[in-house]
């Protein structure tokens, strides 16, 4: 549902999806971990990133994420024409371009003729502060809403309520947090990704209403490393 609203593809049906998917196919290349990677019934691929800090949504980062999906998509002897259509989507907390739009589509063009290059690689910036009277405005409202009773979309409210209030849902969430605690910090450090560790700290603080200290303890960040992250929060 979320991807349908953002991309405008009404017949979008995902065949598989994975959160925190690691991408590093080229030896020596910079490691990235996609917040969510999905593939639909038409073979289109989606990278959905949620960024609280504006600095985490730089154009160069979107370009790199888009390229990483391409590198992962082709095997030896496959034709370039077999590259799938891709959507790299950054949901930002603020309106980083300042025009008040809900979505900023980014496409390559033949500049001298204002014609699409049509490489089927799309980048979308979604304004998390957008509150228009439309499905996207409702979705962004719910993204920032902690109380299921205040959510406008019944499906999202039901899912949120399940993971916060249902014993089975709470158990699943706790298990997921435990896995993130075990993997997230070390993975980010190995990749030289202090920014990713900071994002994980902020996500835990926001999602669980933890203090910075509690979030770092949950992630098992060594005491000697904690001051440098506190200074950047």
Task: Explain what this protein looks like in three dimensions.
Helix content is 40%, strand content 21%. It folds into two domains: 2-130, Trna Endonuclease, Chain: A, domain 1 (3-Layer(aba) Sandwich); 167-221, no CATH class. It is built from eight helices and eight strands; from the N terminus they run H-E-E-E-H-E-E-E-E-E-H-H-H-H-H-H. Strand 3 (45-51), helix 2 (59-73) and strand 4 (86-92) form a beta-alpha-beta unit. The protein is α/β, with parallel strands linked by helices. It is globular and about 50 Å long. The two termini are 32 Å apart.
* CATH topology tier name of the largest domain: Trna Endonuclease, Chain: A, domain 1
Uncertain parts: none
| Helical proportion, percent range | 25-40%
How much of the sequence lies in strands comes to 15-25%
**Overall morphology:** globular
What would you say the CATH architecture of the largest domain is?
A: 3-Layer(aba) Sandwich
The average pLDDT is 86
Summed up, the helix count is 8
Helix vs. strand class:
alpha/beta
Record the strand order, biggest sheet.
1-2-3-4-8-5
CATH class of the largest domain: Alpha Beta
Descriptive labels:
single chain, 233 residues, alpha/beta, Trna Endonuclease, Chain: A, domain 1, 2 domains, six-stranded mixed beta sheet, two-stranded antiparallel sheet, 8 strands, 40% helix, globular
């Amino acid at each position: 549902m979320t991807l349908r609203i953002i991309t405008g593809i009404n017949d979008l049906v995902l065949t598989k999806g994975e959160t925190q998917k690691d991408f590093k196919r080229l030896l020596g290349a910079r490691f990235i971990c996609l917040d969510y990677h999905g593939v639909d019934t038409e073979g289109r691929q989606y990278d959905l990133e949620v960024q609280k800090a504006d600095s985490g949504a730089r154009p160069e980062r979107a370009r790199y994420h888009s390229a990483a999906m391409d590198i992962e998509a082709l095997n030896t002897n496959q034709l370039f024409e077999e590259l799938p259509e891709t959507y790299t989507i950054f949901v930002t907390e603020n309106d980083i371009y300042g025009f008040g739009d809900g979505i900023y589509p980014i496409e390559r063009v033949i500049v001298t003729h204002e014609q699409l290059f049509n490489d089927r690689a799309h980048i979308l910036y979604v304004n998390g502060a957008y509150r228009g009277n439309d499905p996207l405005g409702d979705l962004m409202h719910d993204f920032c809403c902690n109380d299921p009773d205040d959510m406008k979309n019944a499906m999202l409210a039901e899912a949120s309520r399940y993971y916060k209030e249902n014993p089975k849902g709470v158990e699943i969430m706790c298990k997921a947090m435990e896995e993130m605690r075990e993997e997230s910090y070390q993975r980010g450090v190995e990749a030289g990704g202090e920014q990713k560790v900071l994002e994980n700290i902020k996500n835990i603080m926001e999602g669980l209403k933890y203090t910075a200290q509690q979030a770092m303890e949950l992630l098992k960040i060594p005491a000697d490393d904690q001051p440098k992250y506190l200074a950047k929060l």
